[in-house]
């Protein structure tokens, strides 16, 4: 029987069907293949294709707001196209716990919510086998697929071997392979100058070989200061039969203090020629950083030019500027990374097959991922017409709520210290759309429904959106119609190259009940071209769409593929989204003001009385008629009532 | 959890989700809804919408070739858009057996292979409860959903009640409801003049009411000769509380003999004014038929004009002309029925969700249905990438094989009494494409891979196809590219109205190994625009497509719907199709000639040495490049070899 719908077995196993057979074939779209590959396969493919890559190392933050900032950094640095990121295991930070600052939670957030292939460090010394197994089980449950197996530092001054425990990273590698077989890809550390505790450089190389033989898949090295150091080490690795990828650890010097601290920890010696430059400028952070960038760029160039290095691993120290600068100068930072899907994907293995989502969460993808994280299966090919998708509650959605909730003063500056009328709310929306500063000189960079400034795609509709928001059509989501643009289009493109993407025009907004009355009259004239859903907070629901029939509003046609239709307007999900969308008025906006204050009552009034409306223009090859619908609605609304 | 892929529960239960809630909505495409409705729901919807319908009654044939002819008739009469057909239960004909002429097999063929909603008659007298249950179970297994519950005629002269058995149709209705609950829709017979065995007209009406109360869903009446007869009966039915649909049985008089026979069987009296017209012309079949048609048309008009009749049921006597003529004159025959899918659907309940098929069987849809009839699930939304679709063997495919196999002499006239070379085969293909008679004056109406003359869609490519067949590119399947034509397009349209349909250009052909060598060189220049699969009978397989990745080549975008992509080029299915396609050379063509004859050896040579090729041009918005590929291949083939 054709297993018609599950295009992927859904297992997290590494061997993808595409790779199981060898036959003459053209290049299947890389974006698509990588989605189903494990990290070591991605590396192998890149090495074979001669493509370069980079990866980024972060450490866990110390505070919740630090975590929120780090996650934003993941999003920004993720857009440059790292092959993976890694998160260090900080024994002091309760690394395997559920705290928002723990290594485990940070790494899992990177995978699940930022869509980044993530490598979680894990140390083994001073821990029981049971604890380690628990950590690994938890990592697996959270969607992590890659572990960097480390010994970790001893607690005391002297290293004491434990007979029954894990004394070396190799023990951890063996344990992972024994308990989890091939589930995890395993990385181990290499020391270009030998580990400081090792008897000798050669002895240390032998230990490295043992880790690989025990089942490790690739190596990331300790930092170093000269390209020869790494290249000699690499040659020595190859000489003793280490054939896996060895990624040089690049440390762009970013300041005098951090350099000294790192050197102390790693027991490395900074070459005199570097110290000679740095010492005189040690109080000039900018100068040191610029020097560090220059140094890193030239070292990376030497490594890449050797032809032996394909990927560079960056110790970012959780900072952006220096690393991005080095990558840009190397031409390795992707300014405009291709989007595999029109929405931000998750990298959780169980979501690998996911390729359809409701359009409603387009500006809140993390909320969507959060609310669907308990699902066992994800829609693939079709959304289908289930009557009960079990959307989770938003209550534990703290990390991302924090982001927009924390700077209350900031929000008041954007959304108004005081609101006088519904019209003041219209103005906030209008300033958000226009991007112009409001009368107090503050730009409205976000709204409760939109974490970020207007997407480039929405910008295509800017003029129309401004006009309608001013009149009280408070738009929170929209897309233009697209009739077969290349999939490489910088604004509306997504998916593998040489494809064609399509969209139906979509508009979603809050508006008053008076406006809705006019709209409903007008919509009669647009049947059946326009589909609509009109709901209020009490669940009153007016629609001309079939109850359980989703409407595909974004789709793509690609060479040698089935059709992909990544966004739909699903009537059932809309009811769940409606609750979230209305709640945001209160949770994120009204609560900025004192109880009983006029400002708060205005927002409360809107929450209680406005409707949430979505409109789809089904005739995607024609000019978008939704603006005309709104125009007609204004006219209808303004028409003197006949009595 | 969203049940992402099974858009339908797959149960055969009648209550479709679309109907379970009442809300304001626009008309969802009827074609689509009807696919998921049971017969009584279809009627209800048509009554509510004020749409008229007709249905057609057939009796089982006596011979296997009669069965083949009847099935062709189902296809032709099915194209006029009957709401359903019914097949009578002929006690003499072993009606529940597996014989190709049995009522059961004929009805199930109509459902499964002709895609017709079918009502199977079943009589109950002189049968045990167990036998009847077995019949019903078998009917269910074969995909039948509707039973016409009848008493049947007594065996002896006198009617004897059996204490334990079924004496009346009402017993059968009760039995069906008791044993099968709501699975079957049940029809019962009504007698506008009362059943001849009934004590009185009123008594007979009461019996009818009992059958309805026992669970019957609608009524078909015995034939009658005056519209008042039916309208009075209908009024009387309504008066005693029968509210279900009552379909008048229309009998267009087609000849003197058949009229007399029917009158005798049904114990009806033909009105004198009709006999007065018929008697004088009783030896003039054409005159009687014309009169019968006139009479039926005016009676039907009166019924429809009453506003009380929505559907007409025709006693066809297994003939086409009179019934079609009546329907055409009433404007009820659909000259150009909308295609819900680009391929011929099956009406088996388990295939309701089926909406994707490989393109290969486009000209042999019955073979495809036959080879997939054991599947428990059918692809819905996506074909997916199973590596082992279990296609059944063709061995039991007798009914349709018969059709093209039987007239050997006919086939020889079309395909050549004698073949002299491969070129004579090229000519056969070319005449098939051109539609011109061959030098012996015979049109080539079919080929082993194409049961019917060229489809209108393929006709769009006629000139190109003729040219390439002449040169030995022996095409067996093709479609032009289509970039967003209305779904109502008379040639390439399908699916609900107000949609847009798309296609990638497709070409499938046999050709020599020399031509394939040239083709492969040429195809390098068309990477990755063109996807290809090239196989020979031994299974050698050359392709540039991903092993398990189907390529959607037909898709449609509809208002308020997810994307539908009904045909794909699936690499795995192609291997199964290849076996069928090569076998047809031998089974249907070579075997027309004597063993060892030159003609047979030519076909055998082609079978053994040619390749089967399919090509897809992925760039559907551009001009189809496949003709250029073939053109280039001819040039490459003709190029003097450089040595």
Topology (SSEs and partners):
The structure is a homodimer of 643-residue chains.
Chain A: H1 17-20, H2 30-35, H3 39-49, E1 53-58, H4 64-78, E2 84-87, H5 103-112, E3 118-123, H6 129-141, E4 146-150, H7 169-180, E5 185-190, H8 201-213, E6 218-223, H9 227-239, E7 246-250, H10 256-266, H11 272-278, H12 285-305, E8 311-315, H13 321-330, E9 357-358, H14 365-371, H15 398-405, H16 408-415, H17 422-434, H18 456-459, H19 462-470, E10 474-479, E11 482-486, E12 500-503, E13 505-511, H20 513-524, E14 530-536, E15 541-543, E16 551-557, E17 564-569, H21 571-589, H22 598-609, E18 611-617, H23 626-638
Parallel strand pairs in A: 1-2, 1-8, 2-3, 3-4, 4-5, 5-6, 6-7, 7-8, 9-17
Antiparallel strand pairs in A: 10-13, 11-12, 12-16, 13-18, 14-15, 14-18, 16-17
